[in-house]
Design brief:
CATH architecture of chain B: Beta Barrel
Strand content of chain B: over 45%
Helix content of chain A: over 70%
Number of domains of chain B: 1
Largest interface: A-B, 11 and 13 residues
Largest sheet of chain A: none
Order of helices and strands of chain B: EEEEEEEE
Number of helices of chain A: 22
Order of helices and strands of chain A: HHHHHHHHHHHHHHHHHHHHHH
CATH class of chain B: Mainly Beta
Distance between the termini of chain A: 50 Å
Radius of gyration of chain B: 11 Å
Oligomer: heterodimer
Number of helices of chain B: 0
Number of strands of chain B: 8
Structural class of chain A: mainly alpha
CATH topology of chain B: OB fold (Dihydrolipoamide Acetyltransferase, E2P)
Radius of gyration of chain A: 21 Å
Structural class of chain B: mainly beta
Number of domains of chain A: 1
Chain lengths: 367, 73
């Protein structure tokens, strides 16, 4: 009889079954639609596994996945390692060629702050509101990093929301972009920026790390690793490290990240009405961020002769490089000989850094 | 008069869609440049005959490199 008592089948609750469906849905979307499969696939599987009863996989101090979660995410190891890889993958050339486009990346953080205040007004704690707002930056690792620090109970929901909206960038952004721009604006062809020298690219990560960390010390873990990765890339003398940071290391930590996030989503944690609010508010944040980037570009056009195509402003949300690709597509739909992709990469990368700085400010104020 | 077709955005040549000697019209598709995992078409800037193609599939190209030359008829 002991065997039967220890069998999981009898301890299954309706909530668990619903979570299996959610987990399966994510696995399905990852495979058939290729929605962020590198993350949503392990997250979906993690959700299913964690909602099987009596496994103790997430039991503090003993569960296997709890250990991944505790040492990887709670100890803040994995998100900074992902940033190391992102830094190694990032070419700052587009940003340095047109430094004024940095402002568009900053403008796209408006959604983060607007949503922060709305979520707080709706009754979420300050820490929870900050974690929900950061979804608007559309940056997965930053969302996870901030959630682990400020509101671990929301981590799973916020991470899934962030990665879902990143996957839905091609669906969510174009209507907003078309609504806020005229056909003539979408046809603006931008002048090429100046040529960026290898020396500038080499010094940039060192200089940027110092400036940003001096201003917002709480952003140091993510910014330091990001800029180190970029220094690997631009120094050209540590190709082995550059390659490992971009590929193998990133892939290894992605596995542990995905399964751990999925495993935080047990039925009693996830099936609450707050989670619906998180998804709605996260989407709202993301839409506001898209719009504010476009609107700032239009504002800047009032004062400059060298016009900016306002579509490029939408790329200030960090989802790299999906947002930039969408800008290219919407621009090419208006004028097929207009190539906005590289111009959009500037705000896109500035958006990543902007979101990290926003997270750093939240941490220093709210922690 | 010869018109140079320049690289509109840096990337690598994914596919060349025309051959030397071919007649093209303005806005015809000439080649595909891959950048950021995205295929970008490059269109003919004018009517004419392709007299020289300076790149081949797989080449890495920078902004404003010459891709091909089109001779006006």
């Amino acid at each position: 009889m002991v065997f039967f008592d220890n069998m999981g089948l009898l301890a299954v609750t309706p909530g668990m079954v619903l979570m299996w469906v959610i987990g399966l849905l994510l696995v399905y979307l990852a495979i058939t639609r290729q929605y962020e499969p590198l993350l949503l696939l392990p997250i979906g599987f993690g959700i299913i596994i964690t909602n099987l009863p009596l496994t103790y996989l997430m039991e503090p101090g003993e569960g296997l996945i709890w250990r991944f979660y505790h040492y990887g995410i709670e100890w803040e190891i994995i998100p900074p390692l992902i940033f190391l890889g992102l830094g190694a993958l990032t070419d700052f050339g587009a940003l340095l060629a047109q430094p004024r486009l940095i402002f568009l990346g900053a403008a796209a953080q408006v959604g983060v702050y607007v949503t922060f205040f709305i979520a707080y007004a709706m009754g979420f704690s300050l820490q929870e509101a900050a974690t929900i707002g950061i979804i608007g930056g559309a940056d997965g690792p930053t969302t996870i990093y901030l959630a682990a620090k400020l509101a671990p109970q929301l981590l799973g929901a916020c991470a899934v929301a962030a990665y879902s909206y990143m996957a839905l960038v091609p669906v969510i952004m174009p209507p907003i972009m078309k609504l806020l721009t005229t056909d003539a604006e979408r046809k603006i062809r931008m002048e090429k920026g100046r040529k960026v020298t290898p020396r500038e690219k080499l010094f940039f990560p060192i200089f940027a790390a110092m400036v940003i960390i001096l201003l917002v010390p709480a952003s140091a873990p993510l910014i330091a690793m990001f800029m180190l990765g970029n220094l690997f890339r631009e120094s050209k003398v540590v190709e082995r490290l550059n390659e490992v940071a971009q590929n193998s290391l990133m892939n290894v930590v992605t596995i542990f990240l995905g399964i751990s996030i999925g495993a935080t989503m047990n039925a009693e944690n996830f099936l609450r009405k707050e989670v619906i609010f998180i998804f709605v508010l996260g989407l709202f944040a993301f839409m506001i961020s898209t719009a504010s980037g476009i609107l700032l570009a239009k504002l800047m056009n009032l004062f400059t002769r060298n016009k900016i195509n306002p579509l490029v402003g939408a790329a200030g949300v960090s989802a790299v490089p999906m947002a930039a690709r969408v800008v290219q597509k919407v621009g090419a739909a208006a004028d097929k000989k207009n190539y906005l992709l590289m111009f959009a990469m500037g705000p896109n990368i500035a958006g990543v850094i902007g979101t990290v700085i926003a997270a750093g400010i939240f941490i220093s104020i709210l922690k | 008069m010869a018109t140079e077709v320049l690289v509109p955005l840096a990337g690598s040549i994914w596919e060349v869609l025309v051959e030397v000697g071919e007649q093209v019209e303005e806005d015809d598709e000439l080649l595909v440049i891959e950048a950021l995992k995205m295929e970008n078409l490059v269109y003919a800037p004018c009517d004419g005959k392709v007299s020289e193609i300076k790149v081949k599939k797989g080449d890495v190209v920078e902004d404003d490199d010459v891709l091909m030359i089109i001779e006006d008829a």
